[in-house]
Write a structure and sequence with these properties.
3-stranded antiparallel β-sheet, alpha+beta, 3 domains, Tetrahydropterin Synthase, Chain A
Length: about 270
């Protein structure tokens, strides 16, 4: 049967598949639009199965915040190559997926949710694996809720971060973005000293002591010197104690206090391509 250019274009716009793939799917479906879509999804399942062991370490890490600034989400939509990750159609897909992710609190519910016309997010990823020819998957999913959530996406969509402020002051958008930028750039392991797991502290103390022994320091001095090294560890690795990247004369806590004595950072989240 004859397949018109308009029919092919309609299927292409609906699925993102190439013109020849769309024409072939329509011919196989004898012009039935829904069956043609199903044929393309089956192709995606086959491609996905063949590429299951591929590493999808490229992609786009995107952060989205709701209109009330009370919830934010970071999603990593992974693919195999940087070439695909920079493609406009891929970025449009990634942004659509991230926008939908705002409605969910966990990755399982999100993957099983409706993406469009009876197709779930998970099924959409499989479909696009067939369309693009690369393994497409959700590489990470993080949610942050609070009084005021801000976000930052680093150039190239490789890293994204969220931060939570204790109140919504006039310049909260700029401040929260600055702190999220700090999180993206400096990758803190905790908000403050209290947030660092005790096992990490113990490990760092032992590393410090071993280094001091190798330097020939007396055993009786190790505890006191190690405590100093742990203070340095907190300064480098906890958000509020880190040197502020936009002003090396103050730390993050001092930056926040200089704006409003009652303002606090309550939390953060960060996601990056591995």
């Amino acid at each position: 049967m004859k397949i018109t250019a308009a029919e092919v274009n309609k299927l292409r716009k609906s699925t993102g598949a190439g013109m020849m793939d769309c024409k072939k799917a329509l011919i196989e479906a004898e012009g039935n639009f829904e069956k043609a879509i199903e044929n393309l999804r089956k192709k995606g399942q086959k491609v996905a199965a063949n590429r299951a062991d591929r590493v999808s370490s490229e992609g786009a890490v995107l952060a989205k915040v709701n209109s009330e600034n009370s919830k934010g989400v970071i999603v990593s939509i992974n693919c195999e190559t940087d070439f695909v990750a920079k493609n406009d159609s891929y970025l449009n897909l990634a942004n659509s997926i991230a926008e939908k992710a705002l409605n969910y609190d966990d990755i399982e519910s999100f993957l099983n949710s409706n993406f469009e016309k009876g197709i779930t997010v998970s099924e959409k990823l499989i479909e696009q694996t067939g369309v693009i020819g690369e393994k497409i998957e959700i590489g990470g999913f993080k949610v942050l809720k609070g009084t005021y959530i801000g976000s930052y996406i680093h150039a190239g969509n490789k890293i994204a971060a969220l931060t939570c402020l204790s109140k919504a002051i006039d310049n909260a958008p700029e401040i929260s973005k600055n702190i999220a930028m700090q999180v993206a750039a400096m990758n803190p392991i905790a908000l403050n000293e209290e947030g660092v797991d005790s096992s990490i502290i113990e490990k760092e103390i032992e590393i410090a002591k071993d280094q001091l022994r190798q330097e020939g320091k007396p055993e009786a001095m190790l505890d006191n010197i190690a405590k100093g090294k742990i203070k340095r560890f907190f300064k480098d690795n906890t958000l509020v104690n880190q040197i502020y990247i936009k002003d090396s004369k103050q730390n993050v806590s001092q930056y926040i206090s200089s704006i409003d004595n009652e303002l606090e950072i309550l939390g953060f989240s960060r996601l990056a391509l591995v």
